[in-house]
Design goal:
There is one protein chain. By secondary structure, this protein is an alpha+beta fold. It is built from four helices and seven strands, in the order H-E-E-E-E-E-E-E-H-H-H. The chain has one domain: Peptide deformylase (Peptide Deformylase), CATH 3.90.45.10. The protein is 26% helix and 30% strand. Strands 1-2-3-6-7 form a five-stranded antiparallel β-sheet, sandwiched between helices. The protein has a two-stranded antiparallel ribbon with strand order 4-5. It is globular, with a radius of gyration of 16 Å. It is an enzyme of class 3 (hydrolase). One of its GO terms (molecular function) is metal ion binding.
Length: 181
């Protein structure tokens, strides 16, 4: 499957809530394959569909050698928290401490429409929360306290990539499916 360009901070698709997947078809399986290949090529611990310009509730992860995907996730978070380093493929070269739930139970579907439950803690829990945030138009820098966010924004404004125009890409059929376009 082709590696897709990753959208960077500033692209409006990253701030738009993704639509639920309604068709579990070949196009969805192609999207999952594109996400997986792009994530592994980057390399990253996860990648959500909006990060490649597709406004659907799908993400992939690669944590501890386990590669997976989840469609239409619904999360139950632990009350216990973890503070740890977090970064994002859409905000290159920035890693900063971010508070997250320590563990998560994620329910959703696989690419064939079969129900799936993923239970994870620590890094997997962080990745699932991070990618689900992308589906809601939330970036990890939004989760930072005021001082950490100020520090992050300073680093972002100084980054070489900041202010670059979004890549021009073809609009694939799955980019508009379920969006009424």
């Amino acid at each position: 499957m082709p590696i897709q360009p990753i959208r960077l901070l500033g692209d409006p698709v990253l701030r738009t809530k993704a639509a639920p997947v309604v068709d579990f078809d070949k196009e969805l399986r192609t999207l999952v394959a594109d996400l997986t290949d792009t994530m592994l090529d980057a390399p990253g611990a996860g990648l959500a569909a909006p990060q490649i310009g597709v406004g659907l509730r799908v993400f992939t992860w690669n944590v501890g050698g386990e590669v997976g995907h989840l469609v239409n996730p619904d999360l139950s978070l632990s009350e216990e928290t973890q503070d740890g380093p977090e970064g994002c493929l859409s905000i290159p070269d920035l890693t900063i401490e971010c508070l997250r739930a320590l563990s998560v139970v994620a329910r959703g579907f696989d690419m064939h429409g079969e129900p799936v439950t993923i239970e994870g803690s620590e890094r997997l829990a962080r990745a699932i929360q991070h990618e689900t945030d992308h589906l809601d138009g939330i970036l990890f820098i939004d989760r930072l306290d005021r001082e950490a966010r100020k520090q992050a924004m300073r680093a972002i404004r100084q980054a070489e990539w900041f202010g670059e125009p979004a890549p021009t890409v073809r609009v694939s059929p799955h980019a508009t499916r379920g969006l009424g376009l």
